[in-house]
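Worked example 3 (structure in, sequence out).
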């Protein structure tokens, strides 16, 4: 290759190529999803429940659920174990419910047993009467 550029790596023949939609659909088939109204009620009835915001910093800074643990999706795998025990009841949210579905799938693979993704994301939380800070 000219100028020291590397040739592109071949795609492994045994791995199918998937779109983001494919990955999200597959994750949602493996996880539990709860409505924003159920998440609001669960938070009120289960004080030990950990609500995790997996959005990006700019999204979080515009508003978030009070006392939500902020771990951006891109840092989840490297930060979750230091912050949340595997035995915790966990509900994740993002803006719309897709990143949180991927995050819930990942946490299940990491051994977290009581994990759910909130459908509708932060928008749904607000519409369901969830408190907002920030």
């Amino acid at each position: 290759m000219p100028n020291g550029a590397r040739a592109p790596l071949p795609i492994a023949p045994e791995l199918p190529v998937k779109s983001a939609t494919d990955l999200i659909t597959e994750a949602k088939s493996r996880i539990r999803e709860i409505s924003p109204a159920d998440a609001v009620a669960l938070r009120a009835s289960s004080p030990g429940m950990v609500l995790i915001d997996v959005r990006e910093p700019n999204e979080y800074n515009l508003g978030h659920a009070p006392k939500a643990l902020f771990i951006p999706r891109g840092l989840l795998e490297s930060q979750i174990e230091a912050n949340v025990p595997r035995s915790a009841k966990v509900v994740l949210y993002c803006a719309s419910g897709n990143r949180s579905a991927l995050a819930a799938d990942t946490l299940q693979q990491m051994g977290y047993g009581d994990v759910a993704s909130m459908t509708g994301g932060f928008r749904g939380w607000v519409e369901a009467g969830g408190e907002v800070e920030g």
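Notes: The domain at 32-127 is CATH 3.40.250.10 (Oxidized Rhodanese; domain 1). Residues 98-109 form the longest helix (12 residues).
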